[in-house]
């Protein structure tokens, strides 16, 4: 068997390809950003063709940089930005519209209509999700109402739908020349269209959102010994490599953090933040604004469910400081600025650019900055931005503790923002529990590699992965209880000021 496993990580702002050895160590990597298309307030799009090209280029650069070829790979896995909705013509390979990104809120009026019509209880019971702008089903509904002829074409079998995992797998396996149209249970669970119990598309949910079954991909396990397909030689891999792993990015990070036991959890810091808690083989219904979702399904084993707290804007708030305000030139400067002051100077920033996700699920919210005075500088705003990441995570942890009945003792963290020591120390201070980072912080790609490797026997069991996990760094809380409570109270007050700032009814 070949010595390495590859993982395509198709993210919100970039695509990367990473190569891992049997110990889970990185041996090669390339990452390429692509354009964020912002047609108007609340709208976020990507060009699917640019996404596919960025994947191709990342694979070629990573293999070349590591002096490897595709023959050195035992298998390849895919992980992806979830909920981002792609529709394309399977005969031509051309998208019918730009991909509508998970952050996009253009379907807020459709969401409000479903809520008025009483559909939310059915969707929550069957799909484990609130009706929200976040999920793919509502984005499909908007496309049907705004792209001429799309609905009829879908009913005629002339439209393929998927999150970006499905789009990438279809292209990897040949595209118009026999590409496979598949997804996995974790991605399917983010559409509002899959039944959590049957792990299949649900006719009642399809009817609610007006989605023809003919356009939907086949749902497969997250790690599949039967393979989704093999790579085609005219793609970025110069040979037929088994494709055996597919997970949404946050579930992939859960696998990469080896959260295989009930009660294990992790928080990923990326464009948004996503905290997942393993709840075992039975779905747990949240009473506190958490999502009930699939964690993973490994081959023929029983599916594992999770509670999830999804936060829309964390790392992208730092990007906003850079790209929209221009107060920093690169993301790392946010830490330098934040460290230059002792606190935020009374400034609280709630970056509700896409409404508020967990635990509020309020699409009418918008971002606010409160507490400004002439004393404040860009350093205070930078620190308030980092604090916003941490306070949003605290709200999710509190809600998850309430649902699970178990208080968090240690927070496992991963993702690009964990390189920011100031942020991680703030997180420990605001939560009041230690924060632990593994040696391999990019656990999203590692999880996809683990799923793919399991599918071909590169790793024999999850025990192999547990042995690979090692702690790199730990941050201990240093704030007093009074300091923590005062800061949280200011945050809660600021959040209330974001609610109802836009009219989603009119």
Explain how this protein is built:
- By secondary structure, this protein is an alpha+beta fold.
- The protein has helices at residues 48-65, 108-116, 120-127, 136-146, 150-155, 164-172, 185-188, 203-209, 249-256, 315-325, 333-339, 378-404, 421-431, 443-456, 462-468, 481-498; strands spanning 4-10, 14-20, 26-33, 45-46, 73-80, 86-88, 99-100, 160-162, 182-184, 194-195, 200-201, 218-220, 229-230, 242-248, 265-269, 273-280, 291-296, 304-311, 348-350, 368-370, 411-414, 435-438, 471-475.
- Helices cover 35% and strands 21% of the residues.
- A 7-stranded mixed sheet has the order 17-18-16-15-21-22-23.
- A hairpin with a 7-residue loop joins strand 17 (291-296) and strand 18 (304-311).
Tags for this model:
23 strands; globular; 506 residues; alpha+beta; seven-stranded mixed β-sheet; six-stranded mixed β-sheet
Radius of gyration: 22 Å
According to DSSP, the number of beta strands is 23
Which word captures the global form? globular
| Share in β-strands | 15-25%
Helix/strand/pairing category:
alpha+beta
Mean pLDDT: 93
Q: What are the low-pLDDT stretches, counting only 5+ consecutive residues below 50?
A: none
Proportion in helices: 25-40%
Distance between the amino and carboxyl termini: 60 Å
Sheet having the most strands: 7 strands, mixed
Query: Count of helical segments?
Result: 16
Strand order of the largest sheet: 17-18-16-15-21-22-23
């Amino acid at each position: 068997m070949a010595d390495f496993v590859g993982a395509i990580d198709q993210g919100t702002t970039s695509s990367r390809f990473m190569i891992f050895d049997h110990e889970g160590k990185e041996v090669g990597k390339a990452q390429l950003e692509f354009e964020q298309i912002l047609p108007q307030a609340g709208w976020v799009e990507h060009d699917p063709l640019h996404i596919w090209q960025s994947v191709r280029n990342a694979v070629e650069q990573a293999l070349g940089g590591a002096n490897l070829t595709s023959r050195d790979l035992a298998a390849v896995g895919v992980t992806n930005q979830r909920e981002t909705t792609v529709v394309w013509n399977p005969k031509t390979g051309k998208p019918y519209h730009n991909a509508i990104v998970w952050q996009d809120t253009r379907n807020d009026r459709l969401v409000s209509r479903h809520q008025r019509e009483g559909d939310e209880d059915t969707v929550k019971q069957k799909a484990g999700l609130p009706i929200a702008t976040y999920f793919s089903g509502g984005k499909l509904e908007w496309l049907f109402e705004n792209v001429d002829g799309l609905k009829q074409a879908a009913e005629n079998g002339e439209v393929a739908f998927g999150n970006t995992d499905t789009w990438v797998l279809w292209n990897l396996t040949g595209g118009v020349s026999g590409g496979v149209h598949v997804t996995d249970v974790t991605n399917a669970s983010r559409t509002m269209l899959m039944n959590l119990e049957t792990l299949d598309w649900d006719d009642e949910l399809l009817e609610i959102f007006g989605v023809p079954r003919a356009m939907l991909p086949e749902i497969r396990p997250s790690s599949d010994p039967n393979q989704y397909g093999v790579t085609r030689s005219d793609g970025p891999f110069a040979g037929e490599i088994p494709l055996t792993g597919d997970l949404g990015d946050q579930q992939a990070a859960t696998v990469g953090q080896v959260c295989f036991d009930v009660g294990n959890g992790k928080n990923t810091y990326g464009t948004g933040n996503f905290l997942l808690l393993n709840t075992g083989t039975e779905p747990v219904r949240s009473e506190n604004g958490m999502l009930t979702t699939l964690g993973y399904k490994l081959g023929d084993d029983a599916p594992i469910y999770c509670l999830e707290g999804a936060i829309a804007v964390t790392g992208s708030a730092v990007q906003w400081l850079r790209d929209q305000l221009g107060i920093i030139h690169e993301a790392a400067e946010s830490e330098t600025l934040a460290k230059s002051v002792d606190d935020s100077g009374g400034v609280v920033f709630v970056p509700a650019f896409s409404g508020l996700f967990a635990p509020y699920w309020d699409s009418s919210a918008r971002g606010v900055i409160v507490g400004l005075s002439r004393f404040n500088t860009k350093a205070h705003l930078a620190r308030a931005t980092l604090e916003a990441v941490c306070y949003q995570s605290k709200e999710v942890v509190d809600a998850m503790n309430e649902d699970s009945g178990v208080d968090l003792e240690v927070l496992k963290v991963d993702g690009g923002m964990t390189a920011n020591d100031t942020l991680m120390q703030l997180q420990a201070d605001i939560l009041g529990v230690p924060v632990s980072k593994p040696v391999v912080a990019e656990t999203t790609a590692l999880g996809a590699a683990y799923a793919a490797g399991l599918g071909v026997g590169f790793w024999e069991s999850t025990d192999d992965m547990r042995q690979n996990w090692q702690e790199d760094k730990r941050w201990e809380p240093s704030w007093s209880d009074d300091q923590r409570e005062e800061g949280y109270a200011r945050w809660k007050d600021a959040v209330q000021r974001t609610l109802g700032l836009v009219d989603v009814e009119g």
